[in-house]
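Lecture 7 notes. Example A: sequence first, then its structure tokens.
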Amino acid sequence: CNTSDDVCDVAFISELIDALVSDYYVDPNRVYASGFSNGGFMIYSLACYLSDKVAAFGPVAGLMYTEEYDNCTPQRPLPIIHIHGEIDSSIPIGGGAYSVGFNSVLAYWNNYNQCNESTTINGDDNNGDGYGWYSDVSSGCQQGVSINYTYLENFDHYWPSSNADKGGGSDINGATFIWDFLSKYDINGLRN
């Protein structure tokens, strides 16, 4: 940070990772990051500036800030799973005054990772609400990484959960869905 007024979130998280690796049994090759809403924006900040310390990224209902999109400097191909409600009224999927839309973010990471294959996975309506989910998966990327952009149909600004009492009611359990993706990778790409 350049001034005392700045909040140095990325520097703080970098130092936190260093402390956890140094003081606890944390594998420095298997540090992962996920966050919701503003936390999803933070995950893209970490992807841009801490790709040397975080193995894989899982933003939910957050996008990339326009300035970050223009100045992002990752140091290696990055596996990313991003989940977003198609009717998110807080962080619209198309972006806004300070953020880049979902499709542009997907194109950025596909290009950066040099992905050359794309498939769509259509998910099931597991909770009977008449809506499902689908994932655009980019593969054939450098170092075996992939990108999974999952759209939740008719879903607003909530963490995806099967628990309707907690604002969820989606067709996927976000934590499990993200972990199943993240755990396939380490800092060097796809794990053997």
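Example B, a different protein, same format:
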Amino acid sequence: YNLLYEAFGWEIPTYVHCASVMITDPDTGTVRKMSKRKGDPSYEDLMAQGYLSEAVVNYVALLGWAPHGALSEREFFTLPELVDAFDISGISKSPSAFDMDKLNYFNAAYLRAMSPDEFAQAAEPYIRQAVKNPAYNPAAIAARCEKLTDIPEKVDFFDALPEYSAELFTNKKSKTTPEVSLNMLQAAAPALAALPGWTQEAIHDTLISLAGQLGVKNATLMWPVRIALAGKAVTPGGAGEICHILGRDET
């Protein structure tokens, strides 16, 4: 580098190097230097894995560097804020650790901070990987997540109900068993079918009212309805929301 600078007649700069970035090898559990040759992700890889650029930049900026003073406890910075806060004295001489869980934490926070419209726009390509039916509005089923590539698995039931075991209807917290769930579903189906208008508010109010009539907690009714609709224990929305999106006939 110095020979090139001299050849062009330029002033040789002062070089500043960050210490190594370490990562735990997922195969061996050992800690080693982060290396693309070892298969560790590049910026482009992280983008392809569903991370937001802003989250990656924010997290990576704090590897081997930390702000001073009043900003020392702060984690989240925009790029202009990082530029303003940067001081060379904040660079650490010790190796830093690249932690995927910490990156997931940053990414999830950035996703949550998006407006509904911004998130729906970012999520739509991932939703459409699993939900091909054009009748479903991606903005209505956008599922909050740690990274965008988590979305397809969360919403694929909108196109086709997956195979699932009746054991999913058992939930201690909701006080449900397959037998209890069957009774709840047999009561919920005609109540929902009789609704004059298929609005989310009407669906919600009907289910809450029905739980009261049956003398059970709301969750005892909502859990089996949601499982029957999605075939999954974890869904991007509650029973009422899923009913509304799927429509009366599918519900």
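Note on Example B: The mean pLDDT is 93. The beta strands are 21-24, 31-33, 96-97.
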